[in-house]
Structure formats: C-alpha cells, structure tokens
Amino acid sequence: MVEGLRQVCKNYTMDPSMAAFNDVRSPDKFDNAYFNNILKGLGLLASDYLLGVDPRTRPIVEQYAKDEKVFFLGFFKCNGEGFYVWCQDWS
C-alpha cells in the first residue's frame, strides 16, 4: 500500500489532478474504515499507529471501528451541525 502511494504521488508537483486515498477499501465513502484500518495495522502515518496503541486513544479507535454510528455522532459533535447537514446532502 505504501509503495502504491509512492508511485501515485511521485509527480505530485507536476500533476495537479493527482489523487491518492489512504483508505483503499472505501475511498469515496464517509465511513469508519479508517479506524478499522488502524486496528489491522494498515495506518499510513506514525500517528495512525500511535492512535491504535496508546492506551488513551485505543478505546476510542476500537469504539469507532466497532460502531459506525458512534463514530458519526462523535465526528458531528466535534464538527458542528452544519457539517452534518452538508454530509447528508452529499451522501
């Protein structure tokens, strides 16, 4: 996965249409796949790994991975109701 991203991103300064996704399972869907990926060791960044192993954040990662509705509620609580309305229209 990392090598694939390196290939896609190698000409990022010359190709403005370049796009890369850190969630290959559902790149065009707003879901909790990111948290499932962390638990499977598929995070791309060191911070992804740390979220999965730090005892302060792992319970949150596990909860969001297990229950997508809980993730949505947490996300929208942090980002405001206006974003929730926008996401409903977008999905």
UniProtKB/TrEMBL annotation:
Sequence ranges assigned to domain Plant heme peroxidase family profile in this UniProt record: 1-75
InterPro entries to which the protein is assigned, alphabetical: Haem_peroxidase, Haem_peroxidase_sf, Peroxidase_pln
Catalytic activity: 2 a phenolic donor + H2O2 = 2 a phenolic radical donor + 2 H2O
Keyword Iron in annotation: yes
Molecular function terms, GO-annotated: heme binding; lactoperoxidase activity; metal ion binding
A UniProt-annotated Pfam family: peroxidase
EC number: 1.11.1.7
Required cofactor names: heme b; Ca(2+)
Superkingdom of the source species: Eukaryota
Tagged with keyword Calcium: yes
Residues annotated as binding Ca(2+): 23, 31
Name recorded for this polypeptide: peroxidase
Organism: Lupinus luteus (European yellow lupine)
